[in-house]
Design goal:
Family: Belongs to the binding-protein-dependent transport system permease family.
Membrane topology: Multi-pass membrane protein
CATH architecture of one domain: Orthogonal Bundle
CATH topology of one domain: MetI-like fold
Structural class: mainly alpha
Helix content: over 70%
GO biological process, one term: transmembrane transport
CATH class of one domain: Mainly Alpha
Subcellular location: Cell membrane
Protein name: Peptide ABC transporter permease
Radius of gyration: 27 Å
Number of strands: 0
Low-confidence stretches: 1-8
């Protein structure tokens, strides 16, 4: 009699590598795209700087020194301008990887050192403007949408139109003349009064550094200098946000899920904050990101009027003196600012709206 033995089937579990969720995969893809865009910015910045028809040697050396061929040749060799364009670009990338943006031909300081002073000044102004602009602009835009075609709506639309239409440089000049020269309500140009010294550097933003150091007199003085240029830029940014917020909220107000929330008996405040603003947040975030990137990249004319010493004023001086290393440094910083701002906005998109990260 034969006996048949049946072997037991043992389930085998295969180990797989770590599984990335939709949000992590979405962030990694956006990060990779941002890195490629930064590389493209370096290429565009270098190409445009080298297409400038003027001679950088003559702009840097002056008319007398530029007339001496030996001095011009020595300058070109020192700056690497005698090498082929491809070689110059590779050297430029190698320096960037080491954190070297070149040396300014006007200040004779490293461009990174000049930008480390100019960029925090612009960042301080930009943060002040964007925080108040979001609070005021989104609030008024939402209120206008809720009160559609009523007096409040018409009033806010007129105010936003005025804010967008008035040139910021004209408004800056008018505000400076009225509030400083005529009424003496605002301090003069610069970020601090001449009688005060800058606080110990932590962030480069005088208001924050003064608070960290406990220098409250310096803090109030820096804040008083910040208010007038900030208000000029807030008027334009608020006008922009009111129009886009109103349009975004109107698109959401008649959606079925909003009508269902109202049918459940939820209060108006709950419907607005839990449903309407969340549904309208994506287009609002887009315009906030663009506005913040624009502020961080420097408001040239406003900074020039108020002598703010930010990246906009630095870019203006560099362009007028044909300081190519400084111009390339500013172009790179502006490009990176926009790319990082868009990356952060894309990540927030993925966190807020699951449909974005799934797609």
């Amino acid at each position: 009699m034969s006996t048949t033995t049946t072997s037991a089937q043992v389930p085998v579990t295969l180990r797989r590598g770590p599984h990335l969720g939709p949000l992590a995969r979405y962030i990694l893809i956006r990060f990779g795209i941002s890195v490629l865009l930064i590389f493209g910015v370096t290429l565009v910045t270098f190409t445009l700087a080298n297409l400038v028809p003027a001679d950088p040697a003559q702009a840097a050396l002056g008319e007398r020194a530029a007339s001496d061929p030996a001095i011009v040749a020595a300058f070109r060799e020192a700056q690497g301008l005698d090498k082929p364009v491809v070689t110059q670009y590779l050297v430029y990338i190698g320096h960037l990887l080491q954190g070297n943006l070149g040396t300014s031909t006007q200040s004779h300081n490293p461009v990174s050192q000049d930008l480390s002073v100019a960029f925090p000044a612009t960042a301080e102004l930009a943060l002040f403007v964007i925080v108040f602009s979001i609070i005021i602009g989104v609030g008024l835009g939402t209120w206008a949408a809720i009160r559609q075609n009523r007096f409040v709506d018409q009033l806010f639309r007129v105010v936003s139109l005025i804010g967008i239409s008035i040139p910021t440089f004209w408004l800056a000049l008018a505000a400076f003349y009225v509030f400083f020269y005529q009424l003496h309500w605002a301090p003069g140009t610069g970020r601090l009064s001449a009688s005060l010294q800058a606080p110990p550097k932590v962030t480069g933003m005088y208001t924050i550094d003064a608070l960290v150091a406990g220098q409250y007199t310096t803090f109030w003085n820096a804040l008083s200098h910040l208010i007038l240029p900030g208000l000029v830029l807030i008027l334009f940014t608020v006008g922009l946000l009111v129009r886009f917020s109103r349009s975004a909220v109107l698109d959401v107000l008649n959606q079925e899920y909003v009508l269902a929330a109202r049918a459940k008996g939820l209060s108006s405040a709950a419907v607005i904050f839990r449903y309407v603003l969340r549904g309208a947040s994506l287009p609002i975030l887009t315009i906030v990101g663009l506005a913040f990137g624009s502020l961080l990249s420097g408001t040239v004319l406003t900074e020039q009027v108020f002598g703010w010493g930010g990246i906009g004023q630095y870019a203006y001086k560099s362009a007028t003196t044909l300081d190519l290393p400084a111009v390339m440094g500013v172009g790179l910083v502006v490009g990176v600012v926009y790319i990082l701002t868009n990356f952060i906005i894309d990540v927030v998109y993925g966190v807020i709206d699951p449909r974005v990260r799934v797609q």
